[in-house]
Design a protein that fits this description.
Layout lengths: L5 H10 L4 H20 L8 H5 L4 E10 L5 E12 L5 E7 L5 H17 L6 E6 L8 H15 L8 E4 L6 H15 L20 H19 L8 E4 L4 H12 L3 E7 L2 E5 L5 H10 L6 H6 L3 E5 L10 E3 L9 H9 L4 E3 L8 H9 L3 E3 L1 H4 L2 H14 L6 H25 L6 H20 L3
Helix pairs in contact: 1-2, 2-4, 2-16, 4-16, 5-6, 7-8, 7-14, 7-15, 11-12, 14-15, 15-16
Bound molecules: NADPH dihydro-nicotinamide-adenine-dinucleotide phosphate (NDP).
NADPH dihydro-nicotinamide-adenine-dinucleotide phosphate (NDP) binds next to helix 8.
Length: 446
């Protein structure tokens, strides 16, 4: 760690005690910034980096709601408005029992750099609740979303803060949230939320965007080694929004997905994962992935609580949650011949795992670059809302593809400029940082 940056990290650790994921995210970025601060010392002036590590605003609120048995339930809601130097705060909402302030801060911090990398005018934010949607009826989900928005709405706006989905928040939840926002404000402000349904202002290709974008990014990395997805075996963790559309694009590119998972365990299918069946189980029936072998038959088996990373593959795409791939998993993947790892999730690989991949010469795409296609397409949704326009799937996907190629090239070029060719972690952190830092300097001490 650079000697100018170490005291900044020390202060972040002191002031945000116990927020381990936030510490991890800040440490990883500061470890990358040494070369840029050495070359451009002005970026460290005016406590710019200290300000970058401190959210502009943190909102925590009570979310009371009534369940189907007429019992009152209380959850905690969060919105961390991290940085608005480049545009309105932008980042998803996560509904999961593990949510706490430290997790939302790590996600908001990452989001700031990710959004900068897209080249689009969006700042960074993140929010959510410790509400557990699993097993809840539609009516309960709706009442929870309405109560959540009854506090949240006053902090949002198309020029202020524009949330979207994340773990546990998909099209259904965005619909209920938007409905309540519209009702309270008496405004049809389509640009206040993204990930909306097509009939009320959503963008084509937004549902697919994060997964498709991650695969576009990995394709670009593979091309630097003169190879591609064709005929390669891939493992994708998770079976939610990001995982499903990651698998879809891998299949379109001629790859074979051999395993996917949920928080209960993983399935391996020697004949290749049947994506229609996964969609049926997870998107329509909202069941567990353990149902897959029962419906698919002999080629598939389910391993409860196992490590999906034990399954041999050439391409691994962790797409479930933070720190789901540790050093031991990374060693196993390397031993099994993995050549590329693309993070669909946010910070799914532990720092030790990242180090092992990099030392082994594995192509490694960090989440803040590889999964930026979701937020980029959210920004395209905002553009369509602002111009009362609606683009075709093809046009939107082409824009997404161009954006992902640009992000790839910008990370690769930056890594090279700063003396670490092929280091996408360093490239993403520096390229994102420079864009936010330039804007923060121009805006003065705020
Ligand atoms: P979903 O809720 O649609 O799916 C999440 C998947 O991950 C599910 O299969 C879930 O299993 C699994 N999972 C969640 N938590 C855990 C856990 N603690 N341990 C093991 N498995 C877990 O979420 P998304 O697909 O939207 O998000 C996945 C990741 O991608 C997150 O890191 C998110 O921040 C990131 N991301 C999402 C974007 C988006 O556009 N949606 C954009 C950029 C990043 P189960 O069903 O059992 O809970």
């Amino acid at each position: 760690m650079d000697e100018k940056l170490q005291p900044i990290l020390d202060e972040v650790l002191r002031r945000n005690a116990g927020e381990e994921e936030f510490h991890q995210a800040v440490r990883e970025v500061l470890e990358s910034l040494g070369p840029v601060v050495a070359r451009h010392p002005a970026y460290a002036d005016g406590a710019l980096i200290e300000r970058l590590c401190e959210p502009e605003r943190q909102i925590i609120f009570r979310v009371p709601w009534v369940d189907d048995h007429a019992q009152v339930q209380i959850n905690r809601g969060f919105r961390v408005q991290f940085n608005s130097a480049l545009g309105p705060y932008k980042g998803g909402l996560r509904f999961h029992p593990s949510v706490n302030l430290g997790i939302i801060k790590f996600l908001g911090f990452e989001q700031t750099f990710k959004n900068a990398l897209t080249g689009l005018p969006i700042g960074g934010g993140k929010g959510g609740s410790d509400f557990n949607p699993r097993g809840r009826s539609d009516a309960e989900i709706m009442r929870f979303c309405q109560s959540f928005m009854t506090e949240m709405y006053r902090h949002l706006g198309e020029y202020t803060d524009v949330p979207a989905g994340d773990i546990g928040v998909g099209g259904r939840e965005i619909g209920y949230l938007f409905g309540q926002y519209k009702r309270i404000t008496n405004r049809y402000e389509a640009g206040v939320l993204t990930g909306k349904g097509l009939v009320y202002g959503g963008s084509r290709a937004r549902t697919e965007a994060t997964g498709f974008g991650a695969v576009f990014f990995v394709r670009q990395m593979l091309a630097t080694r003169g190879t591609d997805f064709d005929g390669k075996h891939a493992t994708v963790s998770g079976s939610g929004n990001v995982a499903i559309y990651t698998m879809e694009k891998i299949l379109q590119f001629g790859g074979k997905v051999v395993a996917c998972s949920d928080s209960g365990g993983y399935v391996v299918d020697e004949s290749g994962i049947d994506l229609d069946l996964v969609k049926q189980i997870k998107e329509i029936r909202r069941e567990r992935i353990s149902e897959y072998p029962r419906l698919k038959g002999a080629s598939a088996h389910y391993i409860e609580k196992g490590r999906i990373w034990d399954v041999p593959c050439e391409i691994a795409m962790p797409s479930a949650t933070q720190n789901e791939l540790n050093g031991k998993d990374a060693r196993q993947l390397v031993q099994n011949g993995v050549i590329a790892v693309g993070e669909g999730a946010n910070m799914p690989s532990t720092p030790e795992a990242v180090r092992i991949f990099q030392e082994a010469g594995v192509l490694f795409a960090p989440g803040k670059a590889a999964n930026a296609g979701g937020v980029a397409t959210s920004a395209l949704e905002m553009q369509q809302n602002a111009s009362r326009d609606s683009w075709s799937f093809r046009e939107t996907e082409e824009r997404l593809e161009r954006i992902m190629c640009n992000i790839h090239d910008s990370c690769a070029d930056t890594a090279e400029q700063y003396g670490s060719p092929g280091n996408y972690v360093l490239g993403a952190n520096i390229a994102g940082f420079v864009r936010v830092a330039e804007a923060m300097r121009a805006l003065g001490l705020i």
